[in-house]
Write a structure and sequence with these properties.
242 residues; alpha+beta; Fructose-1,6-Bisphosphatase, Chain A, domain 1; D-Maltodextrin-Binding Protein, domain 2; 2 domains; eight-stranded mixed sheet; five-stranded mixed sheet; 7 helices; 15 strands; globular
Length: 242
Amino acid sequence: MENIKNAIIKSNIEILGYIKNSLKKNDFLYTNKIGFGGDKTLKIDAILEEIFIENLKDFGNIFSEECGYIDNQKDITFIIDPLDGSNNFFSNIPYFGTSVAVKKDDITIAGFVANLASKTVVYRILSEDIRYFCLESKKEFNKIENHSSKVAIFERGYKYPNICKILDDKNFKFRVLGATALSLANARDALFVLFIGDLRVFDIEAALFISGDLYIYKNENLIFITKYKDTFDYFKENINQF
């Protein structure tokens, strides 16, 4: 697993280097392709995906948001979102990153989510604690956790004004940040994270594994994560409002 971890970290370091040193104006253009995940593919999506493929192909199969499934005849499969928060990246909003889940025999054994704007990776490997890695210094670091989070995150909230009103009426402060994997993976920093919409494996697989020690409610089109039991209990009691 150490070699796989290093390959995923290496991919994110190379991606950060590309964005910093090699990004071109044309990279923001859409190609004529629709990715496997159903969204239009930016050129940058394909470029970053190729970096992951090149570094991970010797370790496992690839299942990526853009190219779909690449069978490398391995028992490991990488589930990849090469650019989480594409619209943020396109608009120069500093909240975007990458997501990689590692599965073996249909069991998730690791998750890595990078915030490329803050140059950090949060990751967890099966049977290990959550860890943080700085892509700039190339070292792990200890993150100080805020134990009294006051602001929630409601990804895709702009599509559900009625639910926004319910949250506002209950005096919940919340933000719509625009990068699902980043928000779900870092749910311990928020009062809670709520996502409603299509639960695409590329968006959620790694993040849910990373946040697996928190309180999680999930159905066919909704995910709710919090580190607070009372907040979780309140949500479950009022789920019909959502």
